[in-house]
Amino acid sequence: MSAKSVSVLPSPKTSVVQQPNISIPPLVGAGLEELTAWVHDQGQPAYRGKQLYEWIYQKGVRSLSDISVFPKDWRKEVAEVPIGRSNIHYRSVAPDDTVKYLLQLADSQIIECVGIPTEKRLTVCVSTQVGCPMACDFCATGKGGYKRNLARYEIVDQVLTVQEDFQRRVSHVVFMGMGEPLLNTDNLIGAIKSLNQDVGIGQRNLTVSTVGIRDRIRQFAQHQLQVTLAVSLHAPNQALREQLIPNAHAYPIEDLLAECREYVKMTGRRVSFEYILLAGVNDLPEHALELARCLRGFQSHVNLIPYNPITEADYKRPNQNRIQAFVKVLKQQQIAVSVRYSRGLEADAACGQLRASK
Ligand code: SAH
Known about the structure:
This protein has about 350 residues and is an alpha/beta fold.
């Protein structure tokens, strides 16, 4: 069933005037108001909107025909209206309990998302695109090419799917799966709002990670969200960054950092910088010193990500001594720093290992 073939809804039976068919995208990701308006257009009383809302977000219903509180006739009429839920195509559990999902979308495209449980949290790492056009040299997703943006419902669905599979509320979402979120800003913002208001996840528990697209960080700031912005810096100077990230040619590091400073000013929120550690490439003490210079006076935090191996690249992860030496230099320079040891490594579910295959 393709999304297109079912997006035209039957016109309401009860209306006297013949109304044109109403075309709406699948329902997941729509707020209470939107759903109430749609239900109303269908000639149903407004309270059915509230029911629909609860069944989508609390009960995780997958077909309108399963909503038992709806009148039978109407259920039949709207049975084909797409709710917008994907199917789990493949699921694998890593020894650390991280679960990697391959989800199949309505047009048969496959995306990845990851559920990362701890005692207190359930974090979902969501994709924002099918594939990724950024082609960073160390990332498996980029090696697989780019297909398309994900719609709002396809982003929110990933969280509902993990929630359903774990039978546990999702507490945190990181936009760090496949794709570059700021190339899909409208759907990203729509999904953030829905995850916050409809799924009930605090904005402060949402993190958007970007490689940095010119002007998009400023535009993102204008929405005055409370989410955390993480910027994939990965190198302390332009020459090295260009080697690793093709997009850096078009958007020099100085401009990116200037836009980040503006973001801090506009939102009052700090930026978190991600820095992948590649042995012998960007992990030397002098790189740490240069990085500290880049970030001086910045309200920021550095998240070091020791490289997770992928078959398409021959980088190496630095050893513990090298990692700790890098941390030490940053600390000496008064830079807040943490090391992210990615989970799910054994299931190919760690940062940079996401691709649309097992
Ligand atoms: N496009 C966004 C989100 C992508 S992934 C971005 O670039 O920020 C989230 C993080 O994983 C990014 O910082 C990305 O650079 C990093 N990453 C990619 N490949 C990796 C790998 N092989 N090992 C460790 N981290 C990786």
